[in-house]
Each structure stands twice: as structure tokens, then as C-alpha cells.
Amino acid sequence: MSVFSSSPKIDHATVVAAIAAAEQRTSGEIRVVVAKDKVADPVVAAKAHFERLGMTATIERNGVLIYLAPASRAFAVIGDTAIHEKCGESFWKLTAAAMELRFKQGEFTDGLVLGIEKAAAVLAENFPRQPDDRDELPNTVEEA
């Protein structure tokens, strides 16, 4: 989706706190990547980062990646096989549409937090946190 300026202001600490809070409710893993370079297709780029970050290696295959490509004015929200099977295509479209509204208003941190919260709600419903759950992936905003 093409929606935002090439140098959005993102409060990494707020986004990381949102990821940590979200993962207290679910066994799912949420990651955020902000690309430095232009990409031809944000979904293709997101899938490559999904693999590179080891998101396909989670126990329940329930990771979600929010990928921003500011130089391309685009972003993608993708999930692993198990979460995609449970929530369907409409979840991804609704999440992206809500985020897009915030991005258009220049509210990039808020847009990311909203996307994380929407993903967490679906993850918590379908993959609730278990007593023995452990954080499988780092809670960071990665710049790549």
C-alpha cells in the first residue's frame, strides 16, 4: 500500500512496548521491520525478511510481521501458515486498512501500535498464551 513519507518518525520504544504487551496475551510472535531501501513489492520483501528472521521456526507457526518500506511508500502485514489459516484474508485487509489511515495522518508509531494490537487480538483468540510459553523471537524494531 502506498501511503506515507519516505522518512517517518517512529518511536521504537513505544512499538517495542506494544509488542511485549501483545505477546503477554498470546503464544504468537510479532515483529516489525523498517526497510531503508526502496522495494518493488513490499509483500515479497516482507516474506524474505520473515524467513531471514526465523519467523517460520516458531513452535506454532503463528508469527506476524509488519513490514514498512518508507522509501517505497508501502507496507505489508503478513503471517505464518497457522495464523493465516485461522483468521483468513479479511483480517489482513482490515488490519492494513486501519494502519493505512494512521500512516496517512503521519501517525506512524500509532499506526504500528494499532496493527500490533489488532494482530494480538486475533493471536490471543486463536493462540492464547500458555503457562510454559516463552518468547521465541526478539521484541525489536529492526531496520534492514
TrEMBL record:
Ranges for domain TPM: 12-121
Matches recorded under Pfam families: TPM_phosphatase
Membrane-spanning ranges: none
PANTHER family: BLL7265 PROTEIN, UPF0603 PROTEIN YGCG
Protein name: TPM domain-containing protein
Source species of the chain: Opitutus terrae (strain DSM 11246 / JCM 15787 / PB90-1)
